[in-house]
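step: validate -> pass
step: tokenize input -> pass
step: predict -> running
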Amino acid sequence: MQDGSLNSTSSAHQPPQLARANGIDICYEIFGEAAAKPLLLIMGLGAQMVIWDDEFCQQLAARGFRVIRFDNRDIGQSSALQGGKRLTPFELIKLRLFHIPVAAPYRLIDMAKDTVGLMDALGIASAHLVGASMGGMIAQEVALSFPQRVRSLTSIMSTTGNPRIPPPTREMAAMLMAPPPRTKEEYLARFARTWKMLRAGSFPEDEARDRALAERCFARGLNAAGVGRQLRAILASGSRKARLHAVTAPTLVIHGTKDPLVHPAGGKDTAASIPNARLLMIDGMGHALPIRMWPKIIDAIAAHAHGASAEAA
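step: predict -> pass
step: emit ->
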């Protein structure tokens, strides 16, 4: 395999396309030149690839990367799967108190294989991986199971699966367990309310964009059952903590000090579990990537990935 797309034409932006990967269709989009270093952005639970903001992707591409964002399975315009019932509070209690595993149609390793399958479809031998929340968990799994495919790992607002990490706040847990919206207007209102909670602060510039982004997600297609399957995948996959000492990819861990969904201890645990990982705690950041914090986040990702490439050369 060679780095670069099967389409050799150099382009600063390629619109969304479908690729067959790991037996399913994955919707992806590329920013940046074909010859630039490949960098995959992996999004979190129930989040479409467009949650990686267009401008965020463009700014990363301007730093010398071929940025690839994609819809995970069961979300957006990637394949929807079948099976799995809605998660119940009783199952969560059994998991939390008695460590009884949650049943799931697939696990994080399957989503890691999707990521590698997309790389295969695009002719990418190895890439820098940047994962947010569940995306960080998937990226960790790729680094563990397919180490030769990972040039560097950046795990953002994620965790190890260690059951000792404090749970989400009550408000966030209630939001996760709430029934899905029934109408478009309910969805738009839920989207704005959820992201305001996730940001854990006042970010007017981001809030001003929420409705347009929610409209975009709605138009691309919703899959409430798929979000439930993704959540089951996380809970069924257990802890990676004991395995993470085997990660060889240069690793950067980014986490916000006010994260209401994945406790800051999750980021600290990730960094402590991976040899030589660097931890960047961002003061005032919740479980989101606010526009005002992009410079610090993008600088850190770019410096880490370029540094890893220099070390490997």
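step: describe -> The two ends are 18 Å apart (CA to CA).
step: cleanup -> pass
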